[in-house]
Structure formats: structure tokens, C-alpha cells
Amino acid sequence: MIVGIDLDGTIVDYACLQPVVRVRPDLAEVLGAVGIEIAGRPVAVLSNQGGLPWGVLGVAREDGRPYPTPAYFLRRLGMAVQALESLGAVVEKVGICVYHPKAPQEAILRAAEEVEKGIEVGKIQWLITADPDYRKPRPGLLLWAGVAMYIGDDEIVDGGAAALASVPFIRVPRFL
Ligand SMILES: [Mg+2]
Hints:
Layout: E1 3-5, H1 27-33, E2 42-48, H2 52-57, H3 70-86, E3 90-97, H4 105-118, E4 125-129, H5 140-145, E5 149-152, H6 157-164, E6 169-171
Parallel strand pairs: 1-2, 1-5, 2-3, 3-4, 5-6
Helix pairs in contact: 3-4
Residues 6, 8-10, 152-154 line the site of magnesium ion.
């Protein structure tokens, strides 16, 4: 039974304070508290990355912080995968949706391309998509991975995707 897990605010810091990447230090305990024993479990990391099109355009957020670039995102993802594996989880799949409803299509496609280029081909099954149907709360990523449940920090986005994929949603406190 493969379990889906969100990335930002769930495994790594929601604030995305570049260039630092902060991995949730008590990940195993937080998951244990919601009844998930992570050791030995097949896992799919499934994440919206609609900020990446803005990152490739060099756009800043309203508060002045830059959006993540594909290179920075890949570092965050790599550290998250490493953290899961160090807890004994088996990361089988990674699904990333770079679509953003307001971003120019060209930037969305460039973000997808740059993420794909940076991926280390190994035993993980990857999906990097610009398809809006895969942006949570739509269920595309969860259906692709075939998860039996979904863990995330956002009731609307993660919980919504789980509901549409007809799997249980388990909420963890947001790691800022
Ligand atoms: Mg999140």
C-alpha cells in the first residue's frame, strides 16, 4: 500500500527561505502521531510546484522573496527524499505539477523542462507535468501514483485532492 505525501510544509519548510532548505526535524514523530509508521512503507511524494514558472521568470513574491527556481526546488526535493529514506521509507514515485493558472504557458513548460533535466534517473518513477488536472486539489497526481491515502498540511488543497481521489486524507501541522 503506497502512501502519498505532500512536500512543502509537510516534509520541508513551507516558507521556502532560499537558499536554505529546512527539512522537518521531527518527521517520523509527526507522522507517528497521526498513525503513520513510515519505516518500510512505499511512498509517493506528490507536490504542486506552481511557483516554478514564476521562478524561471525571476519574478518576486509580494513580500519580495523570490519564487523557487527549478535548481532550488530539486535541492529541496532531494533533501526530502533523503529524509524519507533515512527513516526507512521506500520512495517509489515522485509526481510534480508545475502548472499555475496565472503563469504564462511558456514559463510553465520551461519549468517542467528544467526540472526534468535535473532529475537523477534511478529507481524512482517520476512524473513532471504541466497538466492542470494534476494540480491539487485536482486528483491527477494522486490517481497517477495510485495512493491508498494522502498526507499533507493543507485541508483545502491536499484534503480536496484526497477527497476527489477517494482516499483518506491525513493532515499534519504545517512546518513553517
Ligand atoms: Mg503543502
